[in-house]
Amino acid sequence: MMKNILLKSLLFCIVLLECISCNYLDIVPDNMATIDYAFRNRTACEKYLYTCYSYRPRHGDFQWDPAIAATDEVWCHSYINTAGRYIARGMQKVNNPYMNFWSGAKAGSDPVIPALWDGIRDCNIFLENVDKVTDLPSYERDRWIAEVKFLKAYYHFYLFRMYGPIPIMDVNMPVSATPEEVKVYREPVDNVVDYIVNLLDEAAAGLPSNDDLVEGTEAGRVYNLVAKAMKARVLAYAASPLFNGNTDYASLVDNRGVQLFPQTYDPEKWKRAADACLDAIEMAHAQNKRLYTDVDPLLTTQNDTFKLQTTIRQAICDRWNCELIWGSTNNAQYTLAQRCQSRILRVGPEMGTIVRTEWAPTLNTAEKFYSSHGVPISEDKDWVQNNWYSKRYEIRPEPSSGAEKYYVKEGEKTVYLHYNREPRFYADLGFDRGIYFGNGYNKFPDNVKHCEFCAKEYSGVASASESFSITGYGAKKMHSFKDAMTANDYSVEYYPFPIMRMADLYLLYAEALNEYSGPSGEVYKYVDMIRERAGLEGVQTSWAKYSISPSKVSTKEGLRDIIQREREIELVFEGQHFWDLRRWKKIQDFNEQPKGWNVILGDTQDLFYTVTSVAQTPVEFSVRDYFWPINEKEISINPNLVQNFDW
After folding, report:
1. Is the pLDDT assigned to residue 474 strictly greater than 50?
2. Which residues sit opposite 550 in a β-bridge?
3. Contact present, 365 and 589 (Cβ < 8 Å)
4. Are strands 490-491 and 360-361 parallel, antiparallel or unpaired?
5. pLDDT-based confidence at residue 616 (cuts at 50, 70, 90)
């Protein structure tokens, strides 16, 4: 009922804008009696507050989140033709762009992608009218205002990350605005960043702490640490090569002659980002946030190997744990289609087609994880001469000793690539002949399952069904060891998908410090905290003992590469890699053709272990693909909006 009222209250705005050939919903409607009705009392106002929240992009959702659907960390069957997969294949277009958060997108009459300008408009309406509510206590009013300021800042940031320089919509225009007045301009990068950061500062000052949230009923609502952490992320983006002295976009100048991208690199932006990260870290520690190292009570009798692997997974899957700063509560990852076509592993024939492993990590992703020595396998003294793809037969004495028995099914063979890897490799990936701990199979060795990805095996093609991984890997990390599945049903442990967690914040801080002043004890400290949780030695120790390039950790450039690799590993499948490669200006990495094993024809291991390209056609990205195109229809309506480079 209330949603219908709100939609009707904004109808005039839509009609007006259509009449003047501009679809920005940023003009105050003149039917103020209806708007007044929406703010007549506390209950109605609270509903409008939730309307402002409703535009949040669905992090972790395969249908909504480009960083999940369009990433090169995973690949999907060619028949999965969603908007995100088209982007992953280099097929973005300027007329009716895929995953268009600028204008929004619908499937029939249902919104599939929200128009974030609509969200910003509704935030402005809330801020302009909340003072009219007479029965709203001042402390609650102040909090709600801070929440909406955060959402307004976040929606601006989400658009900024996708499109680069954007208009700033601080207030809605009045109905008396002329057609020329509503033809807004995109603002320069630094102006947009300053606007977002100032809003986040205002929000943080008025938001409660995490300790003051009501558990259960207020889960997912923002608090002061979320604003602080998001400020750190915004400033890290602003300091990164994509936005800091990016001469590739020197030609992006509007019809006023305003250059939208700064052309001079400013190292002080990294200092500003580092300060914001430290500020957020100190607040996080004061609110008892830390890296998740808790051992689930169900694991107390397990061996140390399974405890470590599962604890790494539970840093994501243990809901509202001590590491999570902000989690998404509005995605659809727990529907049948989302769960079964994404991250779940089928580890037994009894699971039938109810469990599908179609969101498949690539071989490229598997190769990024460190060796057991904590260095890249291409740099490890003991690895560089090995043939990664050669098959290794089990030759361990019976009974087996050491941790290997917890990684690979005893008596089976797999490739050398799957041996002697770091704990996160085994925690995050399901691979052929790899042990799977969880899913109701938790008693080693009798009850523990393993994956079999060869063609016609239960984790593989399975008699030509579509329910299989196109690469021969599965994303074990993204589902709890407590999930349980059968041929006809499944049950999953709910968790909010992480938008920001402590590991991310620590690595942003290390990155910003290194970029500003180079290697230091403080940089090593925050990288090593992540590595220690993963069961690895510190970067200085690991590179000195095991790397063919031991001096790499002592240079800014070398440590930059290490920190970036650490982010790719630690935050794999969480939607950060997609944006990180863009802000680092490493779009060319997406052009490395996605690889997997020969899952279609590989009905024996000799045939299966053949490196195979899994893309239909070669993927090609260029400088233009750092940003989304603005729909050309928008440009024709408002010529003041200069189109993004090369679109």
Report:
1. yes
2. none
3. no
4. unpaired
5. confident
* CA 542, chain centre distance (Å): 28
223-247 residue pLDDT tens: 999 999 999 999 999 999 999 999 9
DSSP secondary structure letters along 129-194: HGGG-TTS-HHHHHHHHHHHHHHHHHHHHHHHHHHSS----SSPBPTT--TTTTS--PPPHHHHHH
CA angle 287, 156, 178 (to 5 degrees): 145
How does DSSP classify residue 210? G
What is the b/e burial string over 332-353, where b = at least 16 CB atoms within 10 angstroms of the residue's CB? ebeeeebbbbbbbbbbbeebbe
Q: Is 77 helix (H, G, I), strand (E, B) or coil?
A: coil
Return d(Cα 397, Cα 79) in angstroms, integer: 45
pLDDT grade for 332, boundaries at 50, 70 and 90: low
What are 475's strand-pairing partners? 429
More confident residue, 105 or 625: 625
Contact yes or no for 572/365 (Cβ under 8 A): yes
- Residue with token string 């590491």: 323
Task: Please report the pLDDT score of residue 16 as a whole number.
Answer: 29
**Are 143 and 129 a contacting pair, CB within 8 Å?**
no
Give CA separation, 224 vs 126, 150, 231, in Å: 20, 10, 11
Angle between helix axes 502-517 and 556-570 (nearest 10 degrees) is: 170
For helices 138-163 and 224-239, angle between their N-to-C axes, nearest 10 degrees: 20
Q: What are phi and psi of 54, to 5 degrees?
A: -65, -15
pLDDT in tens, 3-45: 333 333 333 233 223 332 333 334 444 445 578 889 999 999 9
Question: Are 443 and 299 within 8 A, CB to CB?
Answer: no
Contact 172, 128 (CB under 8 A): yes
- pTM of the full predicted structure? 0.92
Highest mean pLDDT among 101-110, 216-225, 465-474: 216-225
